[in-house]
Amino acid sequence: MRVRIIFLLKNRGSHVPFHHQYLLAQMIKGILMKGGDEKLTQYSFYNFSGLKGQTKVSRKGLHFYSSRVTLVLSSPSKEFIDYFLMNLFEFSQVELGGLYLQPESVELEEGVDLSDSMKFICISPLVILNSSFNDNSSKRFISPESDNFSDLLYESTISRMQEAELYTEEQISSFYKFQLVPDKAYLARLTAAQKKFARIYPVYDQDVKYEVRGYTFPFTLYAAKEVQEFVFNCGMGRFTHKGFGMLDVANSNPNNRVLKYEFRTLSQQDS
Fold first, then answer.
1. Could you give the CA distance from residue 76 to residue 230 in angstroms, rounded to a whole number?
2. In the β-sheet with 126-127, what is the strand arrangement from edge to edge?
3. Which helix (H) or strand (E) holds 220?
4. What is the dotted CATH code of the domain comprising 117-249?
5. What is each CA distance from 219 to 120, 186, 231, in whole angstroms?
6. Residue 61 backbone dihedrals phi, psi, to 5 degrees
7. The predicted structure's pLDDT at residue 269
8. CB contact set of 256 (below 8 Å; sequence gap of 6+)
9. For 181-195, what is each residue's pLDDT tens digit?
């Protein structure tokens, strides 16, 4: 399931870095830890977008000028999403970079019908290689048109599906069909215009800063419906709980599938 968290922006014109996923990851982790439930604090099967709103770009990063900004949070676990929202709304304000944000409301995106052939766009960069200390291999470029690119994503996806314990071993074994095919025309247009679809991004894990290569381009994924649902809800690739690899269905307007989302706050639970 996916929810949109809407914040009032109390200091319009303030900014965050162009890539601010690591700031969001730190904020989300802090809110989870505040709740004190170790099981849900350690839960990693979720994904989130960057902040959405009216922006202008400067050398400092993204300046937000809209009165409200939105964050999309996705997870197959309603318990996890409700736990996060319950603790988030205990704060009258959270700070993200230079932004002062006041949690206002939550919307639920209606479910999407997925099949064994889906065209996706990347809402956040797709990371295919894991990182380790004092090792630059995670910054290595791998062509999205190569079998190696698709194979690496298959391996990370199946590993995460096993770890999630949502599927039987028989189901996991049946998910052998997996092929990612990039939009070659899109890649050719960017190359011709000398624009990049792959960049180096910072990611923090256990207080250690790593640099990873992330890719942003549309692609078609051929895989079982259960696999499509998993990557749609949990993200694809590495560091998905750090805000990488969030996908959306191409040629769809998520604004057409929004409902108000109700959840119980801590004060409501105590009353």
1. 8
2. 126-127, 208-215, 198-205
3. strand 219-223
4. 3.30.70.1900
5. 6, 9, 13
6. 140, -140
7. 58
8. none
9. 999 999 999 999 999
Helix axes 21-35, 78-88, angle to 10 degrees: 90
For residue 238, give the amino acid letter.
R
181: which 2 tokens?
């095919």
- Which residue intervals of the chain bear CATH 3.30.70.1900? 117-249
Spatial CB neighbours of 237, under 8 Å, sequence gap ≥ 6: 126, 127, 128, 153, 156, 244, 245
Helix 225-234 / helix 147-164 crossing angle, nearest 10 deg = 80
- Distance separating alpha carbons of residues 265 and 86, to the nearest angstrom: 5
Tell me if 190 sits within 8 A of 144, measured CB to CB. no
pTM higher than 0.85, yes or no? yes
Residues of the chain with CATH 3.30.70.1890: 2-111+254-270
**Strands (DSSP E) found in 110-190:** 117-122, 126-127, 178-182
Rounded CA gap, 45 and 37, in Å?
16
Query: pLDDT of 51-94, one tens digit each?
Result: 999 999 999 899 999 999 999 999 999 999 999 999 999 999 99
Q: How far apart are CA 28 and CA 40, in angstroms?
A: 12
Cβ contacts of residue 52 below 8 Å, gap of 6+?
Answer: 69, 70, 71, 72
| DSSP H/E element including 33 | helix 21-35
CA 106 to chain centre: 17
Evaluate the CA torsion angle 247, 250, 255, 260 in order and state its sign: negative
The fold for domain 2-111+254-270 equals: Alpha-Beta Plaits (3.30.70)
Tokens of 100: 């002062």
| Identity at 228, one-letter amino acid code | Q
